[in-house]
Design a protein that fits this description.
Layout lengths: L12 H48 L83 E3 L6 E3 L19 H14 L3 H12 L5 H27 L3 E11 L2 E9 L4 E6 L4 H8 L6 E4 L12 E4 L1 H14 L6 H21 L5 H19 L6 H12 L6 H4 L8 H17 L5 H19 L4 H10 L12 H5 L1
Parallel strand pairs: 3-6, 6-7
Antiparallel strand pairs: 1-2, 3-4, 4-5
Helix pairs in contact: 2-3, 2-11, 2-12, 2-13, 3-4, 4-12, 6-7, 7-8
Length: about 475
């Protein structure tokens, strides 16, 4: 308590001096506390600046952009583990078909001592190898005629042809080779130049990067009806996981969207990141469930139910806890525990240990706790923002506990974006809008084949050899197929 000395009147000199000394002592203690607090804050600022600089350097480090830091001291030796730590035991299966037999006889004498070798048994080993690859060139003798009635030019076409071009464009690349090029460029992420190099080294087919680009554009044209059918399938999927990431078209910033539905995926490259662009694929009246992150435009799908990504919220809580001190910590800790309790309730449900009534009671309890949290008065700025965001997402936090087939996170969309992110990192995007259309069409087809465990090669061959664009034989939701 601060001591105020009495007024000076000459008679109370000793009391005045004693009170003044007490005041000086209090001020010195306060000053020392401020010095210690300043030193603590200075050290904290230094540590934060070092951590920020480290993050900046790691973000620019191209050799290991996804590094998790140095290996820990607990890291074991590489390779297989012994005993129970071995994991799932498996081995390469014996091939069902044997194309040739090779006899491997014993040597006449022991290679070490020169002694006589006695035969004991014959063991078998199998080796699967690629045959020596060389291109198979087919010359089509295309018959051309003219209708005697209407005078129209008639040109025959073989089912194996991918084009009707003649003259200067008569030398074509076959459908199987083009299917390989599509997968190298759109799934593996190889650039057009590297794809052409692989084609030359592996198959002996000479093709330029520009020729490949034109061939892939023709493949996308053939696959456009399939792309339209996939868009319709996404619109009729009961649950869709959307997400978006940055993209470049002609050096200009755009956005690549992904929409993962019921066994189908659609990519769409658009100039914006708003509701208009999302609705261009989903439709403004989409009435299923959206598994999405907290991006505000998704909330404008008013006819849909929503599930916000729990992983994003947990990550946000972790980030707040890294810097929060004292009274700022209870809010992110409470939110984190609330979300973890929801995931624990899901685990109990999935293991069949709870009845529907118990699950409904658990969800009601979670929502009651959430409402009590949202009603609290919070002074910390970051915590206020967190609670404001949770208020916007109030009805989208526990949809996965109320509806079957709904995930707690948008992991499906995140996984679907990974191949596109690899492509972006390797060759940066597309040079033209036409190239962007080729990217979205072929990437959607390949990703859907992956979801349905289908080999894309025969599907691409079918599309490439069709005289006109057709819809590929994939699985579509019944309502989408009917549409």
């Amino acid at each position: 308590m601060k001591v105020i000395p009495p007024a000076w009147d000459g008679a109370n000199e000793a009391a005045w001096e004693q009170a003044g000394c007490a005041t000086c002592a209090d001020l010195e203690r306060e000053l020392e506390q401020q010095r210690r607090e300043n030193e603590r804050l200075r050290q904290r600022l230094t540590e934060t600046e070092k951590a920020l600089e480290q993050v900046r350097r790691e973000g620019k480090r191209q050799a290991a952009p996804f590094s998790k830091g140095p290996a820990g001291s607990h890291a074991g030796r590489p390779g297989r583990r012994a005993g129970a730590a071995y994991g799932q035991q498996a081995r390469r299966q014996v091939p069902a078909q044997v194309d040739r037999d090779v006899d491997v006889p014993l040597p006449a004498a022991c290679p070490t001592c020169g002694g006589q070798v006695e035969h004991e048994r014959v063991a078998e080993q199998y080796q699967e190898e690629l045959p020596e690859v060389r291109p198979v060139v087919t010359r089509f003798h295309v018959h051309i005629g003219r209708c005697q009635r209407c005078g129209r030019r008639i040109q025959a076409r073989h089912p194996a042809q991918t084009s009707d071009a003649l003259g200067a464009a008569a030398a074509q690349v076959g459908p199987r080779a083009l299917a390989l090029a599509v997968q190298l460029n759109k799934t593996i992420g190889a650039s057009m130049g590297k794809t052409a190099t692989v084609m030359r080294q592996v198959s002996g087919i000479e093709v330029t990067a520009g020729g490949l680009s034109q061939a892939l554009a023709r493949a996308a044209k053939q696959a456009t009806p399939t792309y339209d059918a996939l868009v319709e399938a996404v619109r009729h999927s009961p649950v869709v996981a959307p997400d978006e990431t940055g993209w470049r078209v002609g050096g200009r910033s755009q956005w690549l969207w992904t929409f993962v539905g019921d066994q189908v995926t659609v990519y769409s490259i658009q100039p914006g990141r708003g509701f208009k662009q999302a609705a261009a694929v989903l439709g403004e009246q989409y009435a299923g469930v959206l598994e999405r992150d907290g991006w505000a435009p998704y909330r404008q799908f008013s006819a849909a139910a929503h599930q916000t990504c729990t992983a994003h919220l947990l990550r946000r809580c972790h980030e707040l806890l890294e810097t929060a001190r004292g009274g700022a910590r209870p809010i992110p800790l409470t939110v984190k525990q609330l979300l973890l309790d929801g995931l624990a309730l899901r685990a109990e449900r999935d293991h069949g240990r709870m009845t529907p009534a118990q699950i409904a009671h658990g969800v009601a309890d979670l929502e009651r706790r959430l409402d009590a949290l949202l009603a609290r008065h919070v002074r910390h700025t970051q915590n206020r923002r967190l609670l404001k965001h949770l208020g916007h997402e109030r009805h989208a936090l526990f949809t996965y506990l109320k509806r079957d087939g709904v995930e707690a996170t948008n992991w499906r969309a995140e996984q679907a974006l990974r191949p596109a992110v690899v492509n972006r990192k390797v060759w940066g995007g597309n040079c033209t809008p036409a190239g962007a259309h080729t990217q979205e069409v072929l990437a959607s087809l390949l990703r859907t084949c992956h979801q349905q465990a289908r080999d894309p090669t025969p599907i691409l061959i079918e599309l490439l050899c069709s005289p006109s664009p057709v819809v590929a034989h994939l699985r579509y939701p019944p309502a989408a197929a009917a549409a």
